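Private note to self, pasted from the team thread so I don't lose it. C-alpha coordinates:
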Protein backbone atom coordinates (compact mmCIF):
# COMPACT_ATOMS: atom_id res chain seq x y z
CA UNK A 1 0.00 0.00 0.00
CA UNK A 2 2.82 2.38 0.91
CA UNK A 3 4.63 1.57 -2.34
CA UNK A 4 1.49 2.32 -4.36
CA UNK A 5 1.17 5.72 -2.66
CA UNK A 6 4.81 6.55 -3.36
CA UNK A 7 4.40 5.63 -7.03
CA UNK A 8 1.25 7.76 -7.20
CA UNK A 9 3.08 10.76 -5.70
CA UNK A 10 5.97 10.23 -8.13
CA UNK A 11 3.57 10.30 -11.08
CA UNK A 12 2.05 13.55 -9.77
CA UNK A 13 5.51 15.13 -9.48
CA UNK A 14 6.47 14.03 -12.98
CA UNK A 15 3.17 15.27 -14.40
CA UNK A 16 3.69 18.65 -12.74
CA UNK A 17 7.05 19.19 -14.47
CA UNK A 18 6.91 21.75 -17.29
CA UNK A 19 6.78 20.31 -20.79
CA UNK A 20 10.02 20.43 -22.76
CA UNK A 21 12.21 21.06 -19.67
CA UNK A 22 14.17 17.83 -19.96
CA UNK A 23 17.77 18.17 -21.17
CA UNK A 24 19.81 15.33 -22.62
CA UNK A 25 23.39 14.85 -23.67
CA UNK A 26 24.23 15.47 -27.31
CA UNK A 27 25.79 11.99 -27.51
CA UNK A 28 22.36 10.47 -26.73
CA UNK A 29 20.54 12.12 -29.65
CA UNK A 30 23.22 12.45 -32.34
CA UNK A 31 26.12 10.57 -33.92
CA UNK A 32 29.48 11.78 -35.23
CA UNK A 33 30.14 11.13 -38.89
CA UNK A 34 32.59 8.27 -39.45
CA UNK A 35 32.18 6.78 -35.98
CA UNK A 36 30.07 3.76 -36.88
CA UNK A 37 30.06 -0.01 -36.96
CA UNK A 38 30.29 -2.19 -40.08
CA UNK A 39 28.28 -5.35 -40.76
CA UNK A 40 30.19 -8.58 -41.40
CA UNK A 41 28.90 -11.91 -42.69
CA UNK A 42 30.31 -15.35 -43.32
CA UNK A 43 29.32 -18.91 -44.23
CA UNK A 44 30.59 -21.80 -42.14
CA UNK A 45 30.02 -25.27 -40.76
CA UNK A 46 29.02 -26.36 -37.27
CA UNK A 47 30.12 -29.84 -36.18
CA UNK A 48 29.59 -31.97 -33.09
CA UNK A 49 25.79 -31.90 -33.11
CA UNK A 50 23.87 -34.76 -31.51
CA UNK A 51 22.00 -35.92 -34.62
CA UNK A 52 20.24 -32.56 -34.98
CA UNK A 53 22.19 -31.27 -37.99
CA UNK A 54 21.33 -31.01 -41.68
CA UNK A 55 20.22 -34.05 -43.63
CA UNK A 56 22.85 -34.28 -46.34
CA UNK A 57 20.35 -35.80 -48.79
CA UNK A 58 18.29 -32.58 -48.61
CA UNK A 59 20.99 -29.95 -48.02
CA UNK A 60 23.28 -30.13 -51.04
CA UNK A 61 25.28 -27.08 -49.96
CA UNK A 62 26.08 -28.72 -46.62
CA UNK A 63 27.33 -31.88 -48.31
CA UNK A 64 29.49 -29.96 -50.80
CA UNK A 65 30.90 -27.76 -48.04
CA UNK A 66 31.82 -30.83 -46.00
CA UNK A 67 33.52 -32.49 -48.96
CA UNK A 68 35.46 -29.31 -49.82
CA UNK A 69 36.58 -28.85 -46.21
CA UNK A 70 37.83 -32.45 -45.99
CA UNK A 71 39.70 -32.06 -49.29
CA UNK A 72 41.49 -28.97 -47.94
CA UNK A 73 42.51 -31.11 -44.95
CA UNK A 74 43.86 -33.84 -47.25
CA UNK A 75 40.90 -36.24 -47.12
CA UNK A 76 39.47 -37.21 -50.51
CA UNK A 77 35.97 -38.73 -50.34
CA UNK A 78 34.64 -37.75 -53.77
CA UNK A 79 34.17 -41.39 -54.71
CA UNK A 80 32.33 -42.09 -51.44
CA UNK A 81 30.16 -38.99 -51.15
CA UNK A 82 26.96 -41.01 -51.73
CA UNK A 83 27.65 -42.81 -48.46
CA UNK A 84 27.73 -39.63 -46.37
CA UNK A 85 24.86 -39.99 -43.92
CA UNK A 86 26.01 -37.93 -40.95
CA UNK A 87 23.51 -35.69 -39.14
CA UNK A 88 26.08 -34.09 -36.85
CA UNK A 89 26.99 -31.18 -39.12
CA UNK A 90 25.07 -28.04 -40.15
CA UNK A 91 25.64 -25.18 -42.56
CA UNK A 92 25.29 -21.78 -40.87
CA UNK A 93 25.47 -18.06 -41.57
CA UNK A 94 27.63 -16.07 -39.16
CA UNK A 95 26.90 -12.36 -38.66
CA UNK A 96 28.34 -9.62 -36.48
CA UNK A 97 29.00 -5.89 -36.28
CA UNK A 98 32.59 -4.66 -36.38
CA UNK A 99 32.71 -1.79 -33.87
CA UNK A 100 34.34 1.51 -34.75
CA UNK A 101 38.05 1.70 -33.87
CA UNK A 102 38.31 -2.08 -33.33
CA UNK A 103 42.00 -3.02 -33.53
CA UNK A 104 43.59 -6.22 -34.79
CA UNK A 105 43.36 -8.97 -32.19
CA UNK A 106 40.22 -7.56 -30.55
CA UNK A 107 37.42 -10.04 -29.81
CA UNK A 108 33.81 -9.43 -30.87
CA UNK A 109 30.52 -11.30 -30.41
CA UNK A 110 28.91 -13.18 -33.30
CA UNK A 111 25.50 -14.68 -34.09
CA UNK A 112 25.23 -18.10 -35.76
CA UNK A 113 22.04 -19.13 -37.61
CA UNK A 114 21.22 -22.41 -39.33
CA UNK A 115 20.79 -22.36 -43.11
CA UNK A 116 19.54 -25.90 -43.81
CA UNK A 117 17.11 -28.18 -41.99
CA UNK A 118 19.10 -28.53 -38.77
CA UNK A 119 16.81 -28.62 -35.74
CA UNK A 120 19.20 -27.71 -32.92
CA UNK A 121 22.67 -26.13 -32.79
CA UNK A 122 23.16 -26.73 -29.05
CA UNK A 123 26.55 -28.20 -28.20
CA UNK A 124 27.98 -27.60 -31.68
CA UNK A 125 31.35 -26.10 -32.57
CA UNK A 126 31.77 -23.53 -35.31
CA UNK A 127 34.78 -24.21 -37.52
CA UNK A 128 37.02 -21.38 -38.76
CA UNK A 129 34.77 -18.96 -40.64
CA UNK A 130 36.07 -15.80 -42.38
CA UNK A 131 33.77 -12.80 -41.93
CA UNK A 132 33.60 -10.35 -44.83
CA UNK A 133 32.24 -6.85 -45.30
CA UNK A 134 30.41 -5.45 -48.34
CA UNK A 135 33.76 -4.77 -50.04
CA UNK A 136 34.59 -8.50 -50.07
CA UNK A 137 37.54 -8.18 -47.69
CA UNK A 138 37.91 -10.40 -44.61
CA UNK A 139 37.87 -8.34 -41.40
CA UNK A 140 37.43 -11.05 -38.76
CA UNK A 141 37.56 -14.81 -38.26
CA UNK A 142 35.10 -16.73 -36.06
CA UNK A 143 35.44 -20.11 -34.35
CA UNK A 144 34.31 -21.67 -31.10
CA UNK A 145 31.60 -23.31 -29.02
CA UNK A 146 27.96 -22.32 -29.57
CA UNK A 147 25.50 -21.34 -26.85
CA UNK A 148 21.79 -21.34 -27.75
CA UNK A 149 20.05 -20.86 -24.36
CA UNK A 150 17.31 -23.06 -25.82
CA UNK A 151 16.14 -26.63 -25.83
CA UNK A 152 13.80 -28.79 -27.85
CA UNK A 153 12.25 -32.12 -26.85
CA UNK A 154 9.51 -34.21 -28.38
CA UNK A 155 7.76 -37.50 -27.94
CA UNK A 156 5.17 -39.48 -29.84
CA UNK A 157 2.29 -37.18 -28.94
CA UNK A 158 3.77 -33.89 -27.79
CA UNK A 159 6.79 -31.62 -28.14
CA UNK A 160 8.19 -28.58 -26.36
CA UNK A 161 10.61 -25.90 -27.57
CA UNK A 162 12.02 -22.96 -25.65
CA UNK A 163 13.59 -20.00 -27.46
CA UNK A 164 15.15 -20.66 -30.89
CA UNK A 165 17.50 -23.68 -30.93
CA UNK A 166 18.59 -22.98 -34.53
CA UNK A 167 20.19 -19.64 -33.61
CA UNK A 168 23.17 -19.28 -31.28
CA UNK A 169 25.46 -16.62 -29.83
CA UNK A 170 29.20 -16.73 -29.32
CA UNK A 171 30.58 -14.23 -26.82
CA UNK A 172 34.00 -13.05 -28.05
CA UNK A 173 33.64 -15.65 -30.79
CA UNK A 174 35.53 -13.78 -33.51
CA UNK A 175 38.98 -12.19 -33.73
CA UNK A 176 39.45 -8.93 -35.65
CA UNK A 177 42.02 -9.40 -38.41
CA UNK A 178 41.75 -6.09 -40.28
CA UNK A 179 41.09 -2.58 -38.95
CA UNK A 180 38.89 0.09 -40.47
CA UNK A 181 41.18 3.10 -40.44
CA UNK A 182 39.58 6.29 -39.09
CA UNK A 183 41.94 9.17 -38.25
CA UNK A 184 39.96 11.72 -36.27
CA UNK A 185 42.97 13.90 -35.51
CA UNK A 186 43.36 14.73 -39.20
CA UNK A 187 39.80 15.97 -39.62
CA UNK A 188 39.25 19.70 -40.12
CA UNK A 189 35.49 19.41 -39.96
CA UNK A 190 32.93 16.92 -38.68
CA UNK A 191 29.25 16.31 -39.32
CA UNK A 192 26.96 15.73 -36.36
CA UNK A 193 23.96 13.62 -37.45
CA UNK A 194 20.70 13.82 -35.47
CA UNK A 195 18.90 10.51 -34.96
CA UNK A 196 15.52 12.29 -35.07
CA UNK A 197 15.80 15.08 -37.65
CA UNK A 198 14.40 18.40 -36.43
CA UNK A 199 15.36 21.95 -37.39
CA UNK A 200 14.70 23.39 -33.93
CA UNK A 201 16.83 20.75 -32.23
CA UNK A 202 19.63 21.21 -34.78
CA UNK A 203 19.71 24.98 -34.13
CA UNK A 204 19.70 24.42 -30.37
CA UNK A 205 22.61 21.99 -30.64
CA UNK A 206 24.62 24.50 -32.69
CA UNK A 207 23.91 27.25 -30.16
CA UNK A 208 24.86 25.04 -27.18
CA UNK A 209 28.13 23.98 -28.83
CA UNK A 210 29.13 27.57 -29.70
CA UNK A 211 28.37 28.69 -26.15
CA UNK A 212 30.20 25.78 -24.56
CA UNK A 213 33.35 26.19 -26.70
CA UNK A 214 33.32 29.97 -26.55
CA UNK A 215 33.44 30.50 -30.31
CA UNK A 216 31.35 29.86 -33.42
CA UNK A 217 32.27 26.37 -34.62
CA UNK A 218 28.83 24.80 -35.23
CA UNK A 219 26.33 25.45 -38.00
CA UNK A 220 23.05 23.64 -38.70
CA UNK A 221 22.76 22.93 -42.44
CA UNK A 222 19.55 20.85 -42.45
CA UNK A 223 17.20 19.15 -39.96
CA UNK A 224 19.62 16.23 -39.53
CA UNK A 225 23.11 17.76 -39.85
CA UNK A 226 25.21 20.13 -37.75
CA UNK A 227 28.61 20.93 -39.29
CA UNK A 228 31.52 21.43 -36.87
CA UNK A 229 34.56 23.48 -37.92
CA UNK A 230 37.48 21.88 -36.06
CA UNK A 231 40.47 23.40 -37.86
CA UNK A 232 43.27 24.21 -35.40
CA UNK A 233 41.57 22.43 -32.49
CA UNK A 234 42.23 19.19 -30.63
CA UNK A 235 39.63 17.09 -32.46
CA UNK A 236 39.31 14.26 -29.94
CA UNK A 237 39.23 16.61 -26.95
CA UNK A 238 36.69 18.89 -28.63
CA UNK A 239 34.39 16.01 -29.57
CA UNK A 240 34.62 14.72 -26.00
CA UNK A 241 33.44 18.10 -24.73
CA UNK A 242 30.64 18.33 -27.28
CA UNK A 243 29.13 14.90 -26.64
CA UNK A 244 28.64 15.67 -22.93
CA UNK A 245 26.95 19.06 -23.50
CA UNK A 246 23.29 19.25 -22.51
CA UNK A 247 20.58 20.34 -24.95
CA UNK A 248 16.81 20.47 -24.81
CA UNK A 249 15.53 18.56 -27.87
CA UNK A 250 12.30 19.59 -29.51
CA UNK A 251 9.79 16.97 -30.58
CA UNK A 252 6.96 17.23 -33.13
CA UNK A 253 3.35 16.66 -32.18
CA UNK A 254 2.78 13.04 -33.21
CA UNK A 255 0.25 10.39 -32.21
CA UNK A 256 1.29 6.84 -33.18
CA UNK A 257 -1.43 4.19 -33.22
CA UNK A 258 -0.86 0.44 -33.57
CA UNK A 259 -4.27 -1.00 -34.38
CA UNK A 260 -3.07 -4.61 -34.16
CA UNK A 261 -2.13 -4.36 -30.47
CA UNK A 262 -4.29 -1.40 -29.45
CA UNK A 263 -1.22 0.64 -28.47
CA UNK A 264 -1.32 4.44 -28.50
CA UNK A 265 1.78 6.61 -28.02
CA UNK A 266 1.48 10.41 -27.95
CA UNK A 267 4.12 13.10 -27.88
CA UNK A 268 4.08 15.78 -25.19
CA UNK A 269 3.29 18.56 -27.67
CA UNK A 270 -0.04 17.10 -28.81
CA UNK A 271 -2.82 19.69 -28.61
CA UNK A 272 -6.53 19.26 -29.16
CA UNK A 273 -9.08 21.92 -29.98
CA UNK A 274 -12.45 22.04 -28.23
CA UNK A 275 -14.56 19.16 -29.54
CA UNK A 276 -17.65 17.24 -28.46
CA UNK A 277 -17.50 13.43 -28.43
CA UNK A 278 -20.20 10.81 -28.13
CA UNK A 279 -19.03 7.22 -28.17
CA UNK A 280 -21.35 4.24 -28.20
CA UNK A 281 -22.72 1.60 -30.56
CA UNK A 282 -25.71 -0.71 -30.79
CA UNK A 283 -24.72 -4.02 -29.19
CA UNK A 284 -26.80 -7.20 -29.48
CA UNK A 285 -25.81 -10.23 -27.42
CA UNK A 286 -27.38 -13.61 -28.14
CA UNK A 287 -26.77 -16.48 -25.71
CA UNK A 288 -27.89 -20.07 -26.30
CA UNK A 289 -28.44 -22.26 -23.19
CA UNK A 290 -30.21 -25.44 -24.39
CA UNK A 291 -31.88 -27.64 -21.77
CA UNK A 292 -32.51 -31.40 -21.84
CA UNK A 293 -36.10 -32.59 -21.20
CA UNK A 294 -36.02 -36.06 -19.64
CA UNK A 295 -39.44 -37.82 -19.31
CA UNK A 296 -40.22 -40.37 -16.63
CA UNK A 297 -38.94 -43.93 -17.04
CA UNK A 298 -42.49 -45.40 -17.63
CA UNK A 299 -44.08 -42.47 -19.46
CA UNK A 300 -43.07 -43.69 -22.91
CA UNK A 301 -41.82 -40.25 -23.87
CA UNK A 302 -38.52 -39.35 -25.58
CA UNK A 303 -35.62 -37.31 -24.37
CA UNK A 304 -35.51 -34.03 -26.27
CA UNK A 305 -33.37 -30.87 -26.21
CA UNK A 306 -35.36 -27.70 -25.57
CA UNK A 307 -33.70 -24.50 -26.90
CA UNK A 308 -33.40 -21.51 -24.57
CA UNK A 309 -32.30 -18.24 -26.17
CA UNK A 310 -31.50 -15.01 -24.35
CA UNK A 311 -31.24 -11.76 -26.33
CA UNK A 312 -29.88 -8.53 -24.82
CA UNK A 313 -29.77 -5.21 -26.65
CA UNK A 314 -27.59 -2.26 -25.59
CA UNK A 315 -28.41 0.91 -27.52
CA UNK A 316 -25.87 3.02 -25.65
CA UNK A 317 -28.62 5.23 -24.28
CA UNK A 318 -26.76 5.76 -21.01
CA UNK A 319 -23.72 7.23 -22.75
CA UNK A 320 -23.70 10.98 -23.00
CA UNK A 321 -22.08 13.52 -25.24
CA UNK A 322 -18.80 14.66 -23.69
CA UNK A 323 -16.84 17.84 -24.38
CA UNK A 324 -13.05 17.94 -24.44
CA UNK A 325 -11.95 21.49 -23.77
CA UNK A 326 -8.99 22.97 -25.59
CA UNK A 327 -6.04 21.62 -23.58
CA UNK A 328 -2.43 22.91 -23.52
CA UNK A 329 -0.83 19.50 -23.17
CA UNK A 330 -1.12 15.77 -23.62
CA UNK A 331 -2.12 15.44 -19.96
CA UNK A 332 -5.45 17.20 -20.54
CA UNK A 333 -6.19 15.18 -23.67
CA UNK A 334 -5.67 11.84 -21.93
CA UNK A 335 -7.54 13.01 -18.83
CA UNK A 336 -10.51 14.10 -20.94
CA UNK A 337 -10.71 10.80 -22.82
CA UNK A 338 -10.33 8.80 -19.62
CA UNK A 339 -13.15 10.80 -18.00
CA UNK A 340 -15.45 9.45 -20.72
CA UNK A 341 -14.49 5.87 -19.81
CA UNK A 342 -12.89 5.29 -23.20
CA UNK A 343 -10.73 2.18 -23.65
CA UNK A 344 -7.69 1.89 -25.94
CA UNK A 345 -9.58 0.38 -28.87
CA UNK A 346 -12.31 3.03 -28.77
CA UNK A 347 -9.70 5.75 -28.22
CA UNK A 348 -8.04 4.82 -31.53
CA UNK A 349 -11.32 5.33 -33.37
CA UNK A 350 -11.95 8.60 -31.52
CA UNK A 351 -8.48 9.95 -32.34
CA UNK A 352 -8.96 9.14 -36.01
CA UNK A 353 -12.31 10.91 -36.00
CA UNK A 354 -10.92 13.95 -34.14
CA UNK A 355 -8.12 14.16 -36.71
CA UNK A 356 -10.67 13.99 -39.55
CA UNK A 357 -12.58 16.84 -37.90
CA UNK A 358 -9.41 18.95 -37.81
CA UNK A 359 -9.39 19.22 -34.01
CA UNK A 360 -6.26 17.12 -33.38
CA UNK A 361 -3.28 19.44 -33.81
CA UNK A 362 -0.77 16.66 -34.41
CA UNK A 363 0.34 14.17 -37.01
CA UNK A 364 -1.59 10.90 -36.65
CA UNK A 365 0.42 7.82 -37.67
CA UNK A 366 -1.54 4.55 -37.93
CA UNK A 367 0.53 1.36 -38.23
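Design output:
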Amino acid sequence: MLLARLLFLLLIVLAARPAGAEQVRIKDIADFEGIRSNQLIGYGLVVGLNGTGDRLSNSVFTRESLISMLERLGVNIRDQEAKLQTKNIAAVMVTTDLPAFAHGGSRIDVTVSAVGDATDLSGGTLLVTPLMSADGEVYAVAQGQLVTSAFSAKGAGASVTRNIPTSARMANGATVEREVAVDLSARTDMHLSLRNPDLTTAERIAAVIDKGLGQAVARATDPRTVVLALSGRDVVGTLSQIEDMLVEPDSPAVVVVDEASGTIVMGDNVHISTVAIAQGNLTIQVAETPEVSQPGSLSGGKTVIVPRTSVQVDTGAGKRLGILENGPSLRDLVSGLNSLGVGPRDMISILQTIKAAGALQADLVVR
